[in-house]
TrEMBL record:
Belongs to the FAD-binding oxidoreductase/transferase type 4 family. It comes from Virgibacillus salarius. It is an enzyme of class 1 (oxidoreductase). Transmembrane segments: none annotated. This is D-lactate dehydrogenase (cytochrome). GO terms for molecular function: D-lactate dehydrogenase (cytochrome) activity; D-lactate dehydrogenase (NAD+) activity; FAD binding.
Length: 454
């Protein structure tokens, strides 16, 4: 009996596909990494079906890759060892909202915007905002964050419990609905960010928040990157409870104007947002204005109108697509390092020098409130010279970050793109990770070749 025959015993035939088009759709993500076709794609609807799929994979020693919407940026979901891709499109239900507990339980295929629509009915929102309308399962797999992490924390901070199917088909829970626990090892922390290498997520219990009484967004333009970063550090040092603080450099502002039909000044710009009540916001905004002016802010504009705020953040979120629109036919390498706040200004300047030395087109954006920044590099994926130049930029900024106590990836994950930096970052701890992997996945079936560099 073939593996297809075995899968047909546990899934309806319409939920199994080896059609060329479907295989191609599951052969890549949004990165520049080379695609690879899987052998088969399956579409389970329940945890039990995922468990049965893993038992079949275990019996046939077949690799398994979990797939959400393919928005990852480091090749995390590309099935380089072929095998089975589990697509969670049909596991997309919001199972339970518990407004009194500020919790929601979802299946892994639920998208960020889908959850947002459901939570609005209860006056709640989910805080992790990576920009892309990614699935919650994928966001947990890469420990995503985004624009609001400076106030609310990253994906790992929101996960109370995961239902996980292990490599042999065993189903476990990693936490509970309690706000805290001192019981046992912190399995939530182990599985969140594991990129499908330790298990398949089938349910997530997540922390949610009340929608703020009032929200105000702002845009502050500066003459130099140094002034912009120094202003952000001053805001954080002052203890202002800012919800979002994003840096966009002059090259990126130019692309935003072209793509979003805006007329913002094409200089280093900080996008800000404050959450709170009316009286508190007035004080926070007034204090922030004083700090920004101390750092020679050239233009300062605040928006409390919902439509105007949405336009501002839509422009910021579309920065990557703005570059792609201006350079048709090219791919994008999006770097992702995170450093201590005190090292951020130097890191960004070093990054800009690396881009200029490479001769590639690239813009810098970042969640500068937590020391995380990205370079959007435009490359010809079929030109080895372009790829080598981009890799050199990436190497330079990663080495700079690691020497200063930072990390090679703040939110995009390791995948294959950052696997080569794991030993330099983790040292002897990497061997501990390999031992954990070998215990949970002794046959190396779960997303093989990702995260752990050998």
């Amino acid at each position: 009996m073939t593996i297809l025959d075995a899968l047909k015993k546990i899934l309806p035939s319409e939920h199994i596909s080896d059609n060329d088009t479907v295989l191609e759709q599951h052969s890549s993500d949004e990165s520049y990494h080379t695609p690879k076709l899987p052998d088969v794609v399956v579409f389970p609807q329940t945890t039990e079906e995922v468990s049965q799929i893993m038992k079949v994979a275990c019996e046939y020693k077949t690799p398994v890759v979990s797939y959400g919407l393919g928005t990852s940026l480091e090749g995390s979901v590309i099935p380089y060892e072929k095998g089975i891709v589990i697509d969670y499109t049909l596991m997309n239900k919001v199972l339970e909202v518990r407004p009194d507990d500020f919790l929601v339980k979802v299946q892994p295929g639920v998208t960020r915007k889908q959850l947002e629509r459901e939570l609005k009915k209860y006056g709640l929102f989910f805080s992790v905002d990576p920009g892309a309308d990614a699935t919650l399962g994928g966001m947990a797999a890469t420990n995503a964050s985004g624009t609001t992490s400076v106030k609310y924390g990253i994906m790992r901070d929101q996960v109370r419990d995961l239902e996980v199917v292990l490599a042999d088909g065993t189903i476990i829970h990693t936490g509970s609905m309690a706000a805290k626990s001192s019981s046992g090892y912190h399995l939530n922390g182990l599985f969140v960010g594991s990129e499908g290498t330790l298990g398949c997520f089938t349910e997530l219990t997540l922390k949610v928040h009340g929608i703020p009484e009032q929200i105000m967004a702002g845009r502050a333009a500066f003459q130099t990157l140094d002034e912009a970063v120094a202003a952000v550090i001053s805001i954080l040092q002052a203890g202002i409870p800012i919800a979002r603080v994003e840096l966009v450099d002059d090259q990126s502002m130019k692309q935003i104007n072209l793509f979003s039909d805006t007329t913002y000044r094409e200089v280093p710009t900080v996008f800000l947002e404050f959450h709170g009540n009316e009286a508190g916001l007035k004080q926070d905004v007034a204090f922030t204005k004083d700090l920004l002016e101390d750092h020679r802010c050239q233009v300062l504009a605040f928006e409390s109108n919902t439509a105007a705020r949405n336009r501002l953040w839509e422009a910021r979120h579309n920065t990557a697509y703005a570059f792609l629109h201006s350079y048709p036919g090219k791919k994008q390498m999006v770097t992702d390092v995170c450093v201590p706040i005190s090292e951020l200004a130097g890191a960004i300047k070093d990054g800009r020098k690396a881009v200029e030395a490479s001769g590639l087109t690239g813009g810098i954006v970042g969640h500068v409130g937590d020391g995380n920044y990205h370079i959007l590099l435009m490359v010809d994926a079929d030109d080895p010279t372009d790829i080598e130049k981009a890799n050199q930029v990436n190497r330079q900024i990663v080495e700079y970050a690691l020497k200063r106590g930072g990390t090679c990836t703040g939110e995009h994950g390791v995948g294959i793109g950052k696997a080569k930096y794991q030993e330099a970052e983790h040292g002897n701890a990497l061997e501990i990770m390999r031992k954990v992997k070998s215990v949970l996945d002794p046959n190396n079936l779960l997303n093989p070749g990702k995260v752990l560099y050998d």
